[in-house]
Specification:
134 residues, alpha+beta, two-stranded antiparallel sheet, two-stranded antiparallel ribbon, 4 helices, 37% helix, globular
Length: 134
């Protein structure tokens, strides 16, 4: 019997996940600092929570044994693009784990892997036939 992996419904994480991907492609220093802390997931989560707090975003990423969950706190008025992007990254980690946040094998630029098998190795700029678009 063949087993199939459960694939998160990435479209349900948009538009925030899309904002996170755009910010990572543009080299946003706050989100790139999160990815730089991997493979240390606890350090990455701490950095992500700091970015969420500074940006005024509501969710916080909390470790629950081997998995992650999101808890919500009262938001600040005027949360912006960074808050949305950081929240999208937190939601991706919650449903797909930190293994979905990667660095391009060619240029080391961070990206989010939306493939069903979590096998992507290259960012949008280095994938064949994408023209730099996800």
């Amino acid at each position: 019997m063949r087993k199939h992996a459960v694939v998160p419904p990435f479209h349900a994480l948009d538009p925030e996940l899309g904002v996170a991907e755009q910010l990572l492609r543009r080299g946003n220093p706050q989100l790139c600092a999160i990815v730089a802390r991997l493979p240390d997931e606890v350090a990455a989560a701490h950095c992500l929570n700091s970015v969420l707090a500074e940006a005024g975003a509501r969710p916080r990423l909390v470790a629950t044994g081997p998995a992650w969950r999101i808890v919500y706190v009262t938001p600040y008025a005027g949360t912006g693009e960074l808050a949305a992007g950081a929240a999208g990254l937190a939601e991706l980690v919650m449903v797909g784990g930190w293994r979905r946040v990667k660095r391009c094998a060619t240029c080391a630029k961070p990206f989010c892997d939306r493939t069903s098998g979590c096998t992507r190795k290259w960012g949008a700029e280095h994938r064949r036939g994408t023209g730099g678009v996800d």
